[in-house]
Amino acid sequence: MAEVQRRKERLDRGIKVRAESIYAVSSWEEAAYLLAPRIILVLGLLLAPLLVQSPYWKRVVTVVCVYGLLGLSFDFLAHFVGLVSLGGALATGVGGYASALANKALGLPVFLSIPLASLAGGVVCTVLLLPCLPLRGVYFAIVTLMYPLVLSRLVEAFNILGGTDGIPGVQGFGGPWAESYIIISALLLCLFGLRRLVNEDLGLILRGVKDNDQAVKASGISVTRYKAIAVFIASTLGCLAGAYLAHLYMWAGLSLFALDFSILPIAATVIGGGGTLVGAVVGSMILIPLSELLREFGTLRIAFYALVLMGFIVVRSEGLMVWAQRKYHQFERWVQI
Amino acid sequence: MNMDKPLLKVEGLSKTFGGLQAVQDVSMVLYQGEILGIIGPNGSGKTTLVNLITGFIKPDKGSVKFRGRDIAGWPPHKIADLGIVRTFQNMRPYYSLEAYRNLIVPLNSPRAKRMGMGRWGERDTVALDILEEIGFERDSFVPYKKASALPTGYLKRLELARCLALKPEVIIADELFSGLSASEIASLVPLIEKLQGGGITFIMVEHRLRELFSLANRVIALDFGTKICEGSPKEVMANPRVRQAYLGPGGSD
Ligand SMILES: Nc1ncnc2c1ncn2[C@@H]1O[C@H](COP(=O)(O)OP(=O)(O)OP(=O)(O)O)[C@@H](O)[C@H]1O
Ligand SMILES: [Mg+2]
């Protein structure tokens, strides 16, 4: 029998689409091809609270979104500005305490205290991180890792902000629907907002800083100023997540500075694909429910968790969404030769 | 060229790296509208001198006066803001950005905005205009290619384009011609002459002496960090110390 030789042929149908700036939507098929992934993501997130039945899993959906926000914040700083921060928990802590204070001390309702705490917290985090901005690479990473540790110790040692008891009695959202849809819409807004931003002039300058800060300086632009702007944007997202958590648990405490908030978003971004923004969200959608499912394994949970994480990283080291986006734009077929 | 109008005055500039005297007591004047060449063998301190003038390295001693104001030790972005801009010897584009978007960055600088280089919504067009002027074929895909996909010739042009986006007073070009073919250089020379005609003053650090000497009004030669001679291209070419520096001892015949 004659052996049929076959070769995999790859066509790239995405070239036109990916060269965004010189592309005009010219047909419904192409528009659908462009929009389909976004629609699936938006619908998926909006329907998730309706599809899951138990309050427990509804809560998991909100936590996925919280980590999604933190992952966005990390991915934005790391892959679009070149600042690798290991201190995501700084923002959750600052944002959480700020919102609790705004709510309890100033008497502001939830819908005011969260945005206010996000912005004010963003400013506080930026000011705190200002001295680190000239640091590069691993030095910046290590110093940022210290911030949440130091702050939580300070709260404990000086017994401020409620000390180890924290601030209880923070106003809640008053129901599972508000709880879910506030964070889902916040996540979607931030995701699409950031995606827009990185292609605007401000985003291009930040990407310039990442690629080559010397050239940015040579262009008469203060690198420190733009790094500060980027840190403010990223911190505001983190503070938003923290503020939300404080109202979700109706309590602001030291656990808002927990290492999980620094590390898990990074793992989610790595699995989902760094530099895609949406990868951070997809990574959280995998990691957080997984860690819940593994609860049944008791003490072995962390081992299984680590195994799955390693599996993803070994099999798809570039990240799920980097791979998926490439495949989506490629069209493969077998041809006889 | 206007010999009574010194634009930039460098006095007694020195810099040591560890024990190495990279630049030693260098003084020079740059006149409005001229092209000043700087030559010297490898490691003679040319790039260091450029870094000192543009603020990328802080001098140990000496002053750099721009229009009478001492700018030595200023941060680089402040010096670029004055209109003293530079190219990098080893090109420094934003590799992940398309060629025209490389220019969106400088077009957003405070100086570019002050000089009216493209308001919001017009910057893409201005970027494409600059690229066209500098030799990127406008109707081709070249301006839309990522910088990482561009050959050296285009990256060198992109360096110059970044300077032009700032409407500069002085362009300090560090080995713009090296790595380019003779025909690529031949196409850049009229452009530089045109820019000079438009009022831009140049300092050109070059190894390609023939091309430099056809462009430069005056030339300074460096060796081991010190200025060994200064004058018209002819005078410098004839100088025995320059010949010795380039050809080594005994090579002055
Ligand atoms: N940042 C630095 N740290 C230590 N030494 C340096 C530094 N920059 C330059 N040098 C040294 O200073 C001397 C002058 O270097 P420079 O780059 O200015 O020479 P150059 O004239 O530009 O040479 P080339 O023609 O090869 O570009 C060299 O010996 C170099 O090794
Ligand atoms: Mg050099």
Walk me through what this model shows.
- The complex is a heterodimer of chains A (337) and B (253).
- With 337 residues, chain A is mainly alpha-helical.
- Chain A has a single domain, classed as Orthogonal Bundle (ABC transporter involved in vitamin B12 uptake, BtuC), CATH 1.10.3470.
- Chain A has 14 helices and four strands.
- Chain A has helices at residues 15-18, 28-51, 55-80, 88-104, 110-129, 137-157, 176-197, 201-211, 213-218, 223-248, 260-272, 278-293, 301-315, 320-329, and strands spanning 6-12, 167-168, 251-252, 330-336.
- In chain A, strands 1-4 form a two-stranded antiparallel sheet. In chain A, strands 2-3 form a two-stranded antiparallel sheet.
- The two termini of chain A are 16 Å apart.
- The model of chain A has no long low-confidence stretch (mean pLDDT 89).
- In chain B, helix 3 (99-107) packs parallel to helix 6 (152-164).
- Chain B is 36% helix and 25% strand.
- In chain B, the strands form two sheets. Chain B has a six-stranded mixed β-sheet, with helices on both faces. In chain B, strands 2-1-4-5 form a four-stranded antiparallel β-sheet, covered by helices on one side.
- Chain B is globular and about 55 Å long.
- With 253 residues, chain B is α/β, with parallel strands linked by helices.
- The longest helix of chain B is centred in the C-terminal third of the chain and has 16 residues, at 182-197.
- Chain B has two domains: 1-83 and 173-253, Rossmann fold, CATH 3.40.50.300; 93-168, no CATH class.
- Bound molecules: adenosine-5'-triphosphate and magnesium ion (MG).
- Magnesium ion is lined by residues 46-47, 89, 174 of chain B.
- Magnesium ion (MG) binds at residues 46-47, 89, 174 of chain B.
